[in-house]
Amino acid sequence: MQDASNDAPLSQEERERIRLKRLEKLQGTQETQRIAVASSSSSPDISVGPSSLPPPPRSTTPKDIITKSPILTKPASPTAPKQPALSFEAWQNEALSRILLVSLNEKAAAPLLFLSSLAKELQAENEPLTINQASLDRVLVDRMSMDPKEVENAHLLDRGQLQYSLFDYLLDCWKRLENVKLQTSRAKTLPKSVIEERVHSLNCSKGLLVSYSGLVLQMPDMFPQPQSSRPLGSSQLVERLLADPDSPSGVPMEFLKDLSVRFKEDGLENIIQPLVSGVAAKARNASILTDWRTPMRALLALIEIPGIAAAIPQGATWNPPNATARQIEIVSTLGPFFKTSGFCIDDPSVAELFGTGLKRNKADSSGAFASIRGTVRGIHTSLFQATNGIIRSAPEARERMLEYFYSILKKNERRAQMQVDRATVSGDGFIFNISEVLMQFCDPFMDSQHSRVDRISQTFFRGKSRIDISKETRICASKEKVDEFSADPESSTVNFISDIFFLTLGFHHIGLSRMYVDYKRFTKDFYEMRDQYDRLKEQEAAGQLSAENGLLIKRYEMQLEKMLTFRLSMQSQILDPIILNHSFRFYNLVMVWLLRVVDESHAYPQKPMQLPLPDQPNDNFAILPEFVIEDIVEFFLFVLRHSPETVGSSTLDELVTFTVVFLVTPGYIKNPHLKAKLVEILFYMTLPYRGQRNDDTLGIKLNTHPVALRYLIPAIMNFYVEVENTGRHSQFYDKFNIRYNISQILKFVWTNPIHRDMVKAESKRSETFVRFANLLMNDTTYLLDEGLTKLVEIHEIEVEMEDKTAWATASPQHRQEREGVMRTAQRQASSYIALGNETVNMLAYMTQEIKEPFLTAEIVDRLATMLDYNLVILVGEKMSTLKVKNPEEYRFQPRVLLSDIIAIYLHLDCPAFIAALARDDRSYSAVIFSKASRILEGRNLKSPDEISKLHRLVSKVEDVRQQGAADEEELGDIPDDFLDPLLYTLMEDPVILPTSQISIDRSTIKSHLLSDTTDPFNRMPLKIGDVIDDVDLKTRIQTWKNAQRSKRLNQDQQSESMDVDK
Fold it and tell me: Is the backbone peptide bond immediately before 605 cis, with ω within 30 degrees of 0?
């Protein structure tokens, strides 16, 4: 039956116009189509017209079968191939009719659509009314030219024959063709030659279907389309791609492969870009709590096809140059996929996973951690697959992907700043995800042997590098050297490994490294607010809470709840063991690379590093941005504080070598703050961590690693002296924390005889070790004085608060002020006393083995005075003022402190030290020693033998004091010009200061220069080697002393003579 729609066919001119338009689009694509067929594992040729159809295969004759087939010993099976019932032409007409749902036979039943116009044309041309390769092109054009909006075709819409868009129609044809092809290729009753002939024909037909599919996607108005609210063109593929590819509404991957091959050089990007944009729009609204997997799966499906993967970076939205850091994660092609975040600060809905309230259930938090970490790991895996697919698709695509990452890095430079407006930079999740994808690219060259470290460029930052570090502080290069390197026109060629390495370094700097610092600062703020909240709750429980503070409690509760959720959100990702392990391995590689750069032979780690290094580092190292080292130390400090088990399960060789090499080599890191962080890393290594015995620490490596055994002691002892002047406004207080860390390291390794011998060797370097000993005493004096003074303040306030009546009647303002003073004193006392304890303890165990440096003229008097003063504080009349509640909170252990101080006295029991004690007129007292002995004996702090030695020491001091009094009486009044201008004691070895021309005792100026390298009278620079012996004054002093002694001797003789005469 003939369809009414064919009563009004398109005119010949209209048909010709459509044909010419198609041919113009398809011109020059024959070779592309051949590739398409080849990719379908079929015949290497595709045709769009009869001229390109190869001749059919030669018919196989019975003779050929006999000649070419093996001799059969059994009769043929009943299923042996037979000649087909239909000729090839008849089969082709029937198959294509079923595939295209059209017919040239007016009696064809629905759903076949009779193409009456084309049938008339073929009859006029005396062509058979069959669909074959010769007529296929005209059949498709005629079918697609039917306008579903025309009135005469309305009944076809009702029958469902024209209600679908042309792309949907062509895709369905493609699917039916694939089914026919599959059935044909599996037919066991047909000869192989027949199957091959039919499959070849189907492949040629498929090529034409793919061509027209691409055309209607690019130019949906090329043929009449049904009325629809859905957008036409490439956007039609979006919903299909988001659906299951095996479902009727999905799009088969083989179809996309055919499409990519056919249009590779013919506008594939015009098809793909709207498609990817549509999928990205879906991803833009996704989160880890919603369906992020569907758009991600769609993206990965596209990228699995190399041709499409290579086309994706060619779009205008790939890396929009004018997009800001905040916009790039939204408007760029891959931005919406990378921005899927597990951080509350990016996606507030994540907070739902952690529950509510200040007291969270630990099991719930653990469950939230597992959920977020599992999801984010899945996102990272998918993002890596997508990125890797694009990079591997084509060299140009790889370059565009790298440029995309470099561009994001550049736009987010402000993320590395201490204070930044988050609205002006990309989100944490976006940067975090990129970092982890880059980390996975680093994986092949992060092997334990670092076998590919030589592939990483050492001159990446020479000239105009792809990472702008013009505003960055350099490790140790001068401005002139930086300018010279920046202007170098011969930038080195950078390989892919180097690009990935430095990109990972950059993204860690603006990402995880910044998060570590933010987490530390945030945690401090959290605990401070919680302490304030707890104090208010105590007031509330005591009925002393004001109405204003009652409102403050509610605000604190709301804020603390938000802060707790935020903290848990950060912990779920930055403390993820897998993430930490990735960063650990990466920074191991960075440390090895840095050591290789400074190594003279540039052969590390394949060959051991030769120390000491040259006095000046090479330029490639000097011009590196300081953040390279800063990020290393921040990472290891973060891990050692919060997840030491991560380090405990890994090798520490690179870390120990790195820290010791750069501590022992002066001038390579000019920032003392960074070197202090290296010391802090070693300090944390000496601490036991969760689940470990006290003697089972990461610091064991310090007692076995060959570099540590040789260079650790000189490195930390030199740095102990170096930190006296750091150049920072807080240097006075910084040095105490740094030296505390050093004291803990020294205590840890002191039991190792190799390290102890190294300390002894350092002590023989007289000038250096004397400065060390001097600073040790200075610190002890200040810290104990400040710490014990704070205990007195605490004692006074506690006594005041114990008077309940007086305290209750005091004004709220007074109570608040005193409580504030007490909290400050408690905090300071804890810090000062802990540091003071360690310095005294270090003096105790060092003086047991090393004595000479502590007995030098410039040291011994000050050491004796310091010990006497603190002994008076501990056991003198004011000792009761040190009694405080809970002394352990302030780490105040008076018995241990007393024992250590007495140990120092006993260790230094020799004439020089005894004389120094005798000269201390301010604090020395035999009575104090007697009281200390009773305490030591009563508390069993020292053995009887040690107490006896102490008594003998005091006896010796008393003898020297008596002799000193006699000598002083013998000399009488000392002339002013013989007195030391600083100490007002008789000079023994006077020297002249070169700039002020003032004479002073050598021991006095040496003691002064240990702490201040200037002339004390005019502040001009001064070294001990610059002073001039004042021979004349020394002679005059000696002459005067002899004269005074002679005069005294004569007077004594006269007195004796007079006594005899009487």
Answer: yes
Strand partners, 1021: 1014
What average pLDDT does range 35-63 have in this prediction? 34
The structure tokens listed for 1033 are 């004054």
Report the DSSP pairing between strands 113-114 and 999-1001: unpaired
Asked whether 931 and 899 are in contact (CB, 8 A), the reply is no
CA torsion sign, 915 to 919 to 925 to 926? positive
Phi, psi for 1000 (deg, rounded to 5): -150, 155
* 989-1002 confidence digits (pLDDT tens): 999 999 999 999 98
pLDDT digits (tens, 9 = 90+) for 884-905: 998 988 899 999 999 999 999 9
Q: What is the pLDDT of residues 953-979, one digit of tens each?
A: 999 999 998 887 776 766 778 888 889
Closest CA to 68 of 173, 161, 193, 250: 193
Cα separation, 495 vs 7, whole angstroms: 67
Q: Are 332 and 536 in contact (CB under 8 A)?
A: no
Poorest-confidence range of 54-68, 834-848, 926-940?
Answer: 54-68
Read off the tokens for 459.
Answer: 């001159």
Total residues found in the chain within this entry: 1062
Distance between CA atoms of residues 89 and 73, nearest Å: 36
Residue 7 has pLDDT above 90, yes or no: no
Q: Using one digit for the tens of pLDDT, what is the confidence trace for 375-414? A: 999 999 999 999 999 999 999 999 999 999 999 999 999 9
Peptide bond into 44 cis (omega under 30): no
1028-1029: strand order across its sheet: 999-1001, 990-992, 1028-1029
Task: Supply the pLDDT for residue 76.
Answer: 46
How far is it, in rounded angstroms, from Cα 946 to Cα 939? 14
The pTM score is 0.83
Does an H or E element contain 107, and which? none
- Between CA 409 and CA 403 the distance in angstroms is 10
The 8-class DSSP code of residue 244 comes to -
CB atoms within 10 A of CB 726: 18
pLDDT at 1008: 83
What is the rounded distance in angstroms from the CA atom of residue 583 to the CA atom of residue 655?
13
CA distance 331 to 311: 18
Give 890's contacts (C-beta < 8 A, 6+ positions apart). Answer: 787, 790, 791, 794, 826, 829, 830, 833, 884
Q: How far apart are CA 317 and CA 1058, in angstroms?
A: 117
**Which amino acid type is present at position 591?**
M
Cβ contact 1015:996 at 8 Å: yes
Residue 979: phi and psi, rounded to 5, are -85, 140
Closest by CA position to 577, among listed 370, 865, 333, 309: 370
Instruction: Evaluate whether 176 touches 99 at the Cβ level (below 8 Å).
Output: yes
Tell me the pLDDT band of 33, cut-offs 50, 70 and 90.
very low
The amino acid that residue 713 corresponds to is I
**Omega of the bond leading into 612 within 30 degrees of 0 (cis):** yes
> pLDDT, tens digit, for every residue of 629-677?
999 999 999 999 998 888 765 678 999 999 999 999 988 999 999 999 9
